[in-house]
Amino acid sequence: MEAIRKQASKLREQVARQQQAVMKQFGGGYGADGVFADEAEAQQHSKLEKLYISTRAAKHFQRDIVRGVEGYIVTGSKQVEIGNKLCEDGKKYGTENTCTSGSTLSKAALSFAKARSMMERKG
Predict the structure, then answer these.
(1) Is pLDDT larger for residue 17 or for residue 35?
(2) pTM score of the predicted model
(3) Burial environment of residue 67 by CB neighbours within 10 A (0 to 12, 13 to 18, 19 or more)
(4) CA–CA gap between residue 113 and residue 94 (Å, rounded)
(5) Which residues constitute the domain of residue 27?
(6) Which of 52, 75, 58 is nearest to 8 (CA)?
(7) What is the pLDDT of residues 21-65, one digit of tens each?
(8) N or C end of the chain: which has fewer CB within 10 A?
């Protein structure tokens, strides 16, 4: 998750640098009285506005993607936590239930717990 956050930060910084570079290159298109000097400057300003809007939208889209991925990570972590708890409970049930020792349910619970533990160690 930390790697995703670092990548998102890098992308945010890159977008910000690109926006600043574009503003430096095209931003000074006004005459002395704040009015466009000619039609070419007006068109260039219009293109600049469109570029700025699209980069801003891309930045927001990127933020939404990162939030979505973080949501998946949180959900996945909770699922692993629940699975681990189920594994521990299965081990307890399989080993501690003396009244049902040898029963199919106890063996199944113990087998599940062992298999899950092995998956966690190898995963």
Answers:
(1) 17
(2) 0.50
(3) exposed
(4) 9
(5) 2-122
(6) 58
(7) 777 776 654 444 455 568 888 888 888 888 888 888 988 998 899
(8) C
DSSP, residue by residue, the chain: -HHHHHHHHHHHHHHHHHHHHHHHHHTT-B-TTSSBSSHHHHHHHHHHHHHHHHHHHHHHHHHHHHHHHHHHHHHHHHHHHHHHHHHHHHHHHHHH-STTTT-HHHHHHHHHHHHHHHHHHH-
Residue corresponding to tokens 């704040």: 34
The tokens describing 52, both together, are: 């700025």
Q: List the structure tokens of 111.
A: 């087998």
